[in-house]
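re: the backbone from monday

yeah here it is again, tokenized this time
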């Protein structure tokens, strides 16, 4: 470990070991405070961003994969919220399972940014409940969260050309896979469209979030929301990997690959119907619909009951309009005011495409059952 707390586990050439002087002259080394990774090489780094109560370094894992060929520098980050795990697996598989021998550009892979939260399996930085994802771009001499954010941002975010930050729903809820992106920014919109999710929610995001601050600093960035905290959800991870591959194709990092079209897509912007339906009664929730389902106006989304299941006390919650369930409660208990379901309206075309997809899925699962 060097003085600044960084520690390179070992440089692993991804080339066949040939000379790099000629064709690779245009690709540059990736440099950060305390080290460099040359074209055609990759490195696993443990980089110090803070210190524990015992005075030991708090180090984040970083994998830099620098391709032989010139191209954009792309960051992939996860676990800014320490208990949001799906993205960790996405970033690890891109960094370590994919073949990058022909990579054009550089990948900066940050699978676990909030190490203290990850160790405690909590969303926030313990113990003052500070949100790392409201602390970017960070500042020296400021709070512990901002100091950590500053180390991450200056070394591994600012040098990049684009970025993808992976999240899940908050503990106790789940999200269908979707992108959040400032669609008014052309490069962010290109990134969002290339990710090939069905749903994109527009907006610049709260200040202090990695995607907003990186975008403002000239590094167009999207957030990917997928599933729930505390789990690896294989189907969602696979779909996110398809999205990453599609982005790397769109921006020329893997020029032989192609951009993936998700079949249907809807952009939820300021003009779209959307609402977080909240509980008006405390109780135990019987949820009738899951994430990604289409519900019709007047359908019962869930009912809220008391411990005695007394008929007269059951509260039915109906869909105020026909739409898609983007996020939904998983932990079936609520106080009045707690969110139950994130419902977004769809255009008639999108509704037709979604219904067709659901019909196909149902018939495929019937076929599987028959086999
Ligand atoms: Zn999050």
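seq for it, each position gets an aa:
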């Amino acid at each position: 470990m060097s003085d600044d707390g960084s520690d390179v586990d070992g440089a692993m050439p991804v080339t066949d070991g040939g000379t790099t002087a000629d064709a690779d002259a245009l690709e540059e080394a990736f440099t950060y405070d305390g080290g460099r990774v040359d074209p055609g090489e990759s490195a696993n780094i443990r980089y110090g961003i803070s210190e524990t109560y015992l005075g030991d370094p708090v180090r984040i894992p970083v994998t830099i994969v620098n391709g032989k060929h010139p191209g954009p520098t792309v960051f992939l980050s996860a676990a800014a919220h320490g208990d949001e795990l799906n993205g960790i697996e996405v970033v690890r598989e891109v960094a370590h399972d994919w073949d990058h021998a022909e990579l054009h550009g550089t990948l900066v892979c940050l699978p676990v940014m909030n190490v203290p939260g990850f160790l405690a399996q909590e969303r926030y930085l313990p113990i003052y409940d500070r949100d790392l994802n409201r602390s970017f771009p960070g500042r020296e001499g400021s709070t512990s969260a901002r100091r950590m954010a500053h180390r991450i941002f200056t070394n591994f975010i600012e040098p990049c050309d684009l970025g993808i930050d992976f999240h899940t729903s908050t503990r106790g809820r789940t999200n269908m896979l979707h992108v959040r992106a400032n669609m008014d920014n052309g490069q962010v919109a290109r990134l969002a469209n290339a990710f090939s999710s069905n749903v994109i929610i527009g907006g610049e995001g709260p200040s202090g979030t990695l995607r907003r601050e990186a975008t403002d600093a000239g590094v167009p960035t999207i957030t990917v929301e997928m599933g729930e905290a505390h789990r690896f959800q294989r189907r969602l991870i696979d779909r996110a990997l398809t999205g990453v591959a599609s982005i790397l194709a769109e921006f020329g990092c893997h020029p032989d690959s192609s951009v993936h079209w998700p079949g249907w897509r809807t952009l939820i912007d300021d003009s779209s119907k959307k609402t977080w339906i909240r509980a008006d009664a405390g109780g135990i929730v019987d949820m009738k619909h899951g994430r990604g389902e289409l519900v019709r106006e007047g359908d019962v989304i869930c009912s809220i009951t008391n411990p005695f299941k007394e008929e007269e006390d059951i509260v039915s919650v109906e869909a105020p309009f026909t739409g898609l369930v983007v996020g939904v409660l998983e932990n079936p208990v609520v106080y009045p005011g707690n969110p139950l379901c994130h419902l977004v309206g769809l255009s008639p075309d999108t509704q037709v495409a979604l219904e067709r997809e659901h019909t196909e899925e149902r018939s495929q699962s019937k076929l599987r059952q028959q086999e």
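The longest strand covers residues 41-51. Helices lie at 86-96, 115-120, 144-157, 186-194, 210-216, 234-250, 348-370.
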